[in-house]
Amino acid sequence: MESEMKCNLSEMWSSKMPKGLDLEISHHPMTMRRVANLIIAMERLKAGTSESVLSTEFRDENLLNIMMENMVEERVMFECFSNPPSQFRRTCQHQCSVTDSQQRHLVRDLNSMELNAVTLQAGSENHKVHLTMSTYLPPLPSTEAKARPVALCIKDTNIYLSCHMDGDMPTLNLETVEDKSSLLRISSDSDLVRFLFYTQVSGLNVTTFMSASFPDWYISTAEEDNKPVDMCTETDNRYRTFNIRSKTPLTECRLAPRGHERRS
């Protein structure tokens, strides 16, 4: 009897994939037959065999002898695609609302084009900003292995949060992006990296947002209410942690179907 135990093969093989390649698998959960067929295809890929690895079935006698004798041939499909080592590639998007550690919502100031952290009264929550969070696959090798790059856009607009230098200090800005497709893939040496922030989850839906352009600078809120959201370092007297409320947890984003990256 074959096993129906679920296993996360995308994560299991992520460290063994050739540089610049990512893996998405079309079958969940994976049965024992499908696992065996996938092992065959992966070994062919690592060995650089010219045989197609886009689909495979039991033909390797040595591996077949190791597996259970009563396995029936079954085709398993998986997809390998290249992500250039010097690029961030968008993998999925989801909508969310964000509050700081003091449970203050983000509110957009239409006059100054700034975001403020505001304690909203009952009945006034329609003023809070909802964000579209885009998750990216980082360049390889990534210097932020445990963090995930994201871009933050105000829902139903072309306005993104960005970080760039103002004088001698990084600052947070609201910036209009005319063509959202320009952010599907971002070269690591491009000025567009200013739209990316590394998320670091420290608890249930609690995260920090560190600028990809300026390491160790974080999106933060002031102690006083109704003050602008800006950037700070770990030593500044500001709040750096945020709570993300979303139907799709950030930790699941990388495993979303590839078609998500075409959404805007």
What would your notes on this structure say?
The structure is a single chain. The protein is mainly beta. The chain contains three helices and 17 strands. The protein is globular, with a radius of gyration of 22 Å. The N terminus and C terminus are likely disordered.
Low-confidence residue ranges: 1-10, 52-58, 68-76, 254-264
Kindly, what is the distance between the CA atoms of the first and last residues, rounded to a whole number of angstroms? 45 Å
Q: Mean pLDDT, as a whole number? A: 75
Assess the beta-strand content as a share of residues. 35-45%
- Strand segment tally: 17
In DSSP terms (H or I, runs of 4 or more residues), the helix count works out at 3
The class by helix and strand makeup works out as mainly beta
Output the strand order for the largest sheet. 4-7-8-12-13-17
Largest sheet: 6 strands, antiparallel, barrel
Any idea what the shape is? Answer: globular
Tell me the helix content.
10-25%
The run of helices and strands is: HEHEHEEEEEEEEEEEEEEE
Radius of gyration: 22 Å
How do you describe this structure in short?
The chain is built from three helices and 17 strands. By secondary structure, it is mostly beta strands.
